Amino acid sequence: MDSTRNRRTSGALALPQLAAIAALSLAAALGLSSCTNVAGFSPTSLVRVIDASYIAPAVNIYVANTLFAGNVGQGYISNYGTVPPSGAAVIKVTQANHPTVVLVTASATLKAGAQHSVFLTDNGASPTQYIVTVLEDQQTPAAAAHSAFRFLNQAPRTGPVDVYMVPADTKLANTIPLCTNLPVGSTCGYVSFASEAVTMVITPAGTVTPKYTSTALGLIGGEVRTVVIVDSQLTNDPPVQVVIAKDVG
After folding, report:
1. Which domains does the chain show, CATH number per domain?
2. CB under 8 Å to 46, separation ≥6 — which residues?
3. What's the rounded Cα separation, in Å, for the pair 201 and 164?
4. Helix residue ranges, H only, the chain
5. CB neighbours (10 Å) of residue 102?
6. Tens digits of per-residue pLDDT, 174-214?
């Protein structure tokens, strides 16, 4: 019996020895992981570009020397791309057919791990002044059964606006606007509201005369959107149009 017991335990390690080896292995793994993080991790910043200028010609848009959009016009929204974070990232917009002609340059802070939108807009006047605006985007979904929308007014010919999300079977006059008297060049949001079937309506500030009415938006919750309000190119006294960018969901 004793010889059998000895054969079974021959070459086996006692519990204290196993514990010591496990501790050493864990320490080695942690050390390796730490070295890997320090040597291999490079934080990036997420960036997309949105062309919201109705005056600009077709353009190229560069962020930190990376071409994010080539030969694009009003209404273009790029996917998110990555660039190194920077406290002074250079943004450059050139004419697509004459790349050496620079329309506007700007410097922006791009945070590590954050999402940003770069907007090209204009003053809607003559002589034309192009404007680059950079905003940090929401990265997390809206609360359950809610949607979060952000609005930018880039419609200089229309002026300040009110923005409504009108539920189905509800009149505009009975709806409280999400944003009121939103000036040109300003931002409203992110505004959270209950998710349901709604119609987006935009009116000149203080009126109930729609300049824009969307098709029905079937919101289910969690959506995060950026809405850029721009003057239409269709007539001299236009309604507004919108460019909707998907932030989350």
Report:
1. 42-137 (2.60.40), 140-249 (2.60.40)
2. 80, 81, 82, 114, 115, 116
3. 5
4. 2-9, 15-40
5. 14
6. 999 999 999 999 999 999 999 999 999 999 999 999 999 99
